Amino acid sequence: MIRDHVILGGLVAMVLAPTLGIRGSLLFWVGTVFVDVDHYLRFLFVGKGKTLGLKPMFAFFERSFQARHHKDFLVLDLFHTAEFLILISLFIFFAAPFLLPVLWGIYFHKLVDFFHLLRHRALTKRAHSFIEYYLRKKQIEARGGNPDALNTKIFQGNV
Ligand SMILES: [Zn+2]
User: Fold this and answer.
1) 16 within 8 A of 24, measured Cβ to Cβ
2) I need a surface site. Which of 7, 9, 33, 34 has the fewest CB within 10 A?
3) How far, in Å, from the CA of 141 to the mean position of ligand 1?
């Protein structure tokens, strides 16, 4: 997935270069790629920071993707949440308008993710806001499930 963003984002950045300028399209590209940094944060969080390497991280996300239809499956990725999008949008609009191309890149990333998740019937597998995450976690727990335990199992390769 990150590879798709690097490549697709790079292509669109090139197409936009006449409009955004070289600096602007570079910022756009940084925006599209930066969003997925939160995946590494989830990897650190689930693994309690004990494993740091990129190879185990990609293996973890492959297993996580395979487990996406499990009834207890629920994940939250910080930079993919509505709350983060609102905050970064407000910040850039009002405090750092020179970073607007970064924001277009972030929106473009969300658009690419939308189609990717749709194609894999996974649109609802990742919570899209902290509130949604909280409510859904409560629901899963109410029927005896445990998303955290499932994520730990995925991390350990036991799923
Ligand atoms: Zn993403």
Assistant:
1) yes
2) 7
3) 26
